[in-house]
Amino acid sequence: MAEPQAGPPGTVTFTLDGRRVTGREGELVISAAERAGVYIPRFCYHPRLAPVGMCRMCLVEVVGPRGATLQPACIATVEEGGEIVTDSPKVKKAQDGILEFLLINHPLDCPVCDKGGECPLQDQTLAYGPGESRFVEEKRHFAKPIALSELVLLDRERCIQCGRCTRFAEEVAGEAQIDFAGRGERLEVAMFPTRPFTSYFSGNTVQICPVGALTATPYRFTARPWDLDQVESTCTTCAVGCRVAVQSSANRLTRLLGLDSEPVNHSWLCDKGRFAYEAVNGDEVRAGPAAADGRPVTLGSSHPRGAFAGEVIETASKVGRVTEPMVRAGDRHVRAGWSRALAEAARRLGEVRAAHGPEAIAVLGGGRLTNEGAYAWTKLAKAVLGTDSVDAQLGDGLPAELVLALPRATIDETCSAPVVVLIGGDVREELPVLFLRLRRAVLDGRTRIVEVSPRSTALTQYAAVSLRVRPGDVPAVARILAGQPGPLPSHPAGPACSPEQLAQARALVEAAGGEAGSSVVVAYGRSSLAEDPSFDAAAVSTLAVAWPGARFLPLLRRGNVHGALDMGMAPGILPGRTSLEGGRAWFVEHWGSVPRARGKAATEVLQSAAEGGPGSVRALVLVGCDPLQDFPDAALAARALAGAEVVVAVAGHPSPALDHADVVLPVAVAHERPGTTTNIEGRVTRLGQKLVPPGLAWPDWTIATALADELGYDLAIGSVTEIAEEIERVAPAYRGFSPGYLDQVSGHDGLVVPLGTADAPPVAPIDPMATPGIGQVEQQGAPPRAGLTETVERELLAALHPEPAGEGAPAPMRRPAVEPVALPPPDHYSLRLVSTRRLYDRSSAVVGSPSLEPLVPPARALANPSELARLGVQDGERVRVTSPRGQVVLEAGADAGVPKGVLVVEFNLAEPAGAPNAASALIDATVPVNDVRLETL
Amino acid sequence: MSYFNAAMAARARQLVSLYPKARSALVPLCHLAQEQDGWLRPEAMEEIAELVGVTPAEVRGTASFYDMLHTEPVGRYVVSICTNIACLLDGAAELLDHASERLGVPVGGTTADGVFTLEEAECLADCDHPPCVQVNHRFVRTTTADAFDRLIDELAAGGRTEEIPPHGTLVRIRRSGGLRVPPDEIARERAQRAQGDG
What we know:
The complex is a heterodimer. By secondary structure, chain A is of the alpha/beta class. In chain B, a hairpin with a 2-residue loop joins β3 and β4. Chains A and B meet through β8 of A and α3 and α4 of B.
């Protein structure tokens, strides 16, 4: 019999347990075998980490020139004509031996271990182990648990030294804050005594630990896997759109685990996304022993659960949530049923509209909504109330026309573009998992980053060129990058970046393929909340004109803000990335009416409500937002709320703005309602509902339709599915998009809209050894992917290229020309204020989560060391920062990554003695840049 | 503020420049820090991490692998007694027991006055004089309990300093010939490698 011919190029054919099997060239035996349906047991191997061959569990027989030898399948690669045996007596004996060795030092405390029931060691011992041990001596004992950080605990005796956690920290997160210490049987995972494992990604080590050695404080001892229920969903803590399995028990969220989504998160999550579910549970928190006696917590020593954040008390009343409709009675709120609250809201809004016209009503917020909720609210605001003053961005975003009109890059395209021009803040603080993707892309040599940011960031060390800019400098830097040489705005301390750096950046862009910019992706966000958004917008606009072939990735960070913009929650915008004017005829046909003229954006709305007078905004509808916390200018927000005649708040969590509300309507938050969400790249994914909303809370779309009913209009939508169908029908960018596709196997990682712009990559199966806890919970009766229909690939692919829109459909939006506002010259006595974001800030998701709240740093006044020296201020000294808006007292910090002439006060962090958001107490959102003075006390 | 004193800091820089990759200087720098203090202080590990571009956890991880690098304080004299086969057959266990009793500390412990640390060692490569004993990694050829007691008395009285330097001292005569490879050649080599990597 003739030998079969070799397969197509790039593939190799080998023998696996007597079968002819095809693998990819250079592929590891373990993964090639898995694709061929042969599972090889493993511990240290993880598909998203480099192989190390440490645990020896995957030993297989590889037939070579010297006969068959045992080799780890996670190191050996498949060879043309090779032969692999995975089921011989020799392999079985090796597996037996390895497991017997591993179990010698393992405590077998499964009944009290969190991992029991979903443990790869347990599962694989049952499947491949010897069944009994010859070890009769005393096992090792260690103090336990060791706190590696406030979120991660270590039980050393359970560790099997696979190194998944230490490799993750070094390889993926780039922060080797944990490493192996000691040797032999005393080998342990350890941090440096004074440097806890504070990585934003520490929770991933708990997720991939194949035993119960690493546990997360919020989950430890709260549930057993067989009691968990789960649903597949998308994390909306930021706008990256990581895929997650949401697990719950008895209508309480217990845990989020990252799903391996090839186009998005590669199975990783950030700790904020992973643990902010606590805010959904809305538990009361009692100060714990560590907080009570005022002593700082010493890490690296043994701690009982709850020592950090205090004890969590489960309460029926959900203190961290708004659960009942309320109306104002004098200076307090009284409980009202839905009918009374809705009638009151409709009456008040109706009165304002009758007396002052629809322009006197404004709707703020929307980034927290599902796409369906956002669509319903847009329809309510623009077709029923008749106002175009709707804004999902709270003065912290960029002009919606620009974001929606630019050709979009996917995350994958960004991570494979030869050059990425990054304009904005710190990606690790704002969109953490995108940071992991970009870092990996740079280290793999796939892309080079030109960073333009107001201070050095976590990506600076990976950037090919990192350009510092002061407030207002970005447009000039963008012109130079685009090949239009010109001067930078002058500053007494000289330009923040050197001409050589600018030339180097320009050379990179030129080398990457010319003037059309087709090899460039521009990733852009807000550089600083203390400067006018037109600076960043003008810079992006300049690059878009200069590089017609470039693609753009918006870095707006808030939850589903991209979905909200797509659904029309911005002034001058209608659903499906359509402009008010371009879509007028189409939407009048479908909706009956649209607003007469372009409305106000959030800053103008608040300014108008604060100033009053004829034609001003008199009614504010807050849809899941709090301008006092979210808007950069707290004083303006406070005056606006005080000045508004009517404030209706749709809220899930208590917040300061509710004090001003005339009507409070309780709303279901993430994991409490189904729908879809759209991420930064325009990828639409399914949001799963895991909980019944607490109390009387309703989903957003139900509130919108009920309010419309009260106002005497029928929104003509009766379910989430109906809304999705209407979106498909009327929103041009969503044409052909049916959420039904998301319920097919191939649709689980979502589809990028408009369809036809990006392919749907294959969806990874759930791997119970890579991410323990999803597959095992599924086996125990709770599938995360409920209601699956087997994919008909052809149908899905056909769906990616829908029929062109019919007669009368709105044309695509045109890119607006954005000019920056005039930049006032700096004076010698002031510093220019920059306000960037931190991951853990005083947002309701963090403050409502007992485990995360202690991690919020205090606000500090950060300046270049030479600037502090010039002003005679010591690092760590308390200083008074004064702007025309207000003053705060902060600790000064020396930061060499801050350019001279600039003061950084990070956004939404508390001043120790006063303002809950020190930065917003200083920022005037109505001026181009904010200058502040700094003085010692 | 450098942790190393001026002379040590200069030597540290020299060590880092000796290798194509700074990380390679990690273990030599640990020895240097131990020479300064007798053991590896946390501050030392933090500074070494900075010098070679790794995290302090990685320095601790590497240092804790090696028995001759101490991440806990040790006495002025570290007394090591080998208990491998040749020494064990010639009374190493008994000598270790005696030493523990004489010094009043368990194996691995340090005397309250901070003068002696007693440790059990693997083969010290002096198998023809068992049981083999070292003080600060210098052979003392003390094979009986009586001789051991005399040694301890002498050391406690401040004797034998010529023969036995403070703990951590590896060599007392520095190589005076300078670097065997001139620094500019190393720099050239590095640049070439960097180009090759790119």
